[in-house]
Write a structure and sequence with these properties.
Layout lengths: L6 H17 L9 H17 L11 H9 L4
Length: 73
């Protein structure tokens, strides 16, 4: 984003902080970048589809997104 537009930066930095905290300790176990890339992809899938977050009413991000998009206005 442009300088001064940090709304999306905050979201990404928050996610990257969680990613580092939750799989960062295992970084020593990867033999190459392909293994690290696969682990990150698996984690993102887990984060979006299975990781329940209390800040979004104890839903996964995908469940919450679908719930919000399907609401009638």
């Amino acid at each position: 984003s442009r300088k001064g537009n940090s709304l999306d930066d905050g979201l990404m930095e928050g996610f990257l902080g969680i990613l580092k905290r939750e799989i960062g300790m295992a970084l020593k176990n990867f033999k190459n970048l392909d293994e690290l890339e696969d682990a990150i992809k698996e984690y993102i899938y887990y984060y979006n589809n299975f990781r329940i977050k209390s800040s979004i009413k104890k839903h996964t991000p995908i469940q919450y997104r679908n719930m919000v998009l399907n609401q009638t206005v």
